[in-house]
Design brief:
- This protein is mainly α and 347 residues long.
- It is 79% helix and 0% strand.
- It is built from 15 helices and no strands.
- The chain is elongated, with a radius of gyration of 26 Å.
- It starts with a helix and ends in a 5-residue tail after the last helix.
Length: 347
């Protein structure tokens, strides 16, 4: 049996298997977010493998077959990254990374469409997918490695999961090189290895219903041990921060900085930043602007003759444009629209 036929059977068989595994995940009871993400990952990978089998069987012919491989391959970046991030524990900075990965995915799909429309060879189109996967997965690995270092100190389950992810990145990088060289024997072999790696990761996850949460708890423990807040009473500090904002109206100072607020709370700026990001779920500007916006709502109604700019300065904003942007994001209306909608019409 030739390598091409072996690859065809292997891809198609495992593609069908992964699709069925995705269905199995969806029928289990007490599903959490990670189960939906893993089902999407398995379904996407399975669809790509089935299309890959047809791709090999048809000897790489047809736009439809090529597109059926290309699109799921590009989508592996955000879906796979969402799976990894949720396993390791989602954080505010991770959400920013996910937004960047989604934007990159749209750009990769658009670039692929442009190349197809321009009549480029499909090997260059697929090189875009492999290149994007390599960049996206390297970014998420670097992000998690920074959060969870050192690797040797990781618990066994977490380290195994992370090492498998690194192996997949190396395989994708090699596949990118083989794709550019148009060396399909090597590409087919790497595909089979990659599929076995993904299957191994799936088996690890299916060993126990709590595997995902076990990995996340291990990651959270590592971050906790490295936290700057070890000697900080989180609940008491958050309550004091709210008191300073509500009673002393610190937000009305347009020059209020992270360092200023941290000093009032008897902590340093990195500690306050971690407190806001991990325990409040907001960045410093968003947190402060929330109080400014609520105060602005009251001012817009109680001072109907004051200009929007005057109210912006009174609330702590340093420009009308910043005020409008923050108010619109919080309420869905500009300050002027809010005032017109809420205030009764003048006689």
């Amino acid at each position: 049996m030739s390598l091409l036929w072996l690859t065809t059977i292997f891809l198609f068989s495992y593609g069908v298997l992964f699709v069925h595994l995705a269905i199995a995940v969806l029928v289990i009871k007490k599903k959490k977010y990670i189960h939906y993400v893993s089902a999407a990952l398995l379904a996407d990978f399975g669809t790509m493998c089935v299309a890959g089998g047809l791709y090999c069987y048809s000897d790489r012919a047809g736009v439809a077959v090529n597109a059926a491989v290309f699109v799921p391959m590009v989508l592996l970046a955000p879906i796979g990254a969402a799976f990894v991030v949720d396993c390791f524990g989602a954080r505010l900075s991770a959400r920013r990374l996910m937004l960047a990965l989604k934007a990159g995915t749209v750009a990769a799909l658009a670039l692929g469409a442009v190349l197809v429309a321009a009549g480029a060879l499909w090997r260059f189109v697929f090189a875009v997918a492999y290149g994007w996967l390599f960049v996206a997965y390297t970014a998420i690995a670097a992000f998690e490695a920074r959060e969870l270092r050192p690797l040797r100190a990781m618990p066994t389950g977490l380290r195994t999961f992370f090492v498998l992810f690194l192996i997949d990145i190396i395989l994708i990088g090699a596949m990118f090189a083989f794709q550019l060289m148009d060396y399909f024997p090597g590409l087919n072999i790497l595909w089979m290895i990659l599929i076995l790696s993904v299957f191994a990761t799936t088996l690890i996850a299916f060993r126990s219903p709590d595997t995902y949460r076990l990995i996340e708890s291990q990651a959270a423990k590592i971050r906790y041990e490295r936290s700057r807040l070890m000697n900080v009473s989180v609940d008491r500090t958050i309550a004091e921060m709210k008191r300073l904002m509500a009673d002393e109206e610190l937000y009305r100072d347009s020059d209020l900085s992270l360092e200023d607020l941290a000093e009032r709370l008897r902590m340093n700026a990195p500690q306050l930043s971690e407190l806001l990001n991990l325990h409040v779920g907001l960045t410093f500007p968003v947190y402060v602007n929330g109080f400014r916006t609520e105060f602005a709502k009251r001012c817009l109604l109680s001072e109907p003759k004051d200009s929007i700019l005057d109210i912006a300065f009174e609330c702590g904003f340093n420009s009308k444009s910043t005020f409008n942007a923050a108010f619109l994001k919080a309420t869905g209306l500009t300050p002027s629209e809010y005032r017109k909608r809420v205030l009764p019409p003048r006689p």
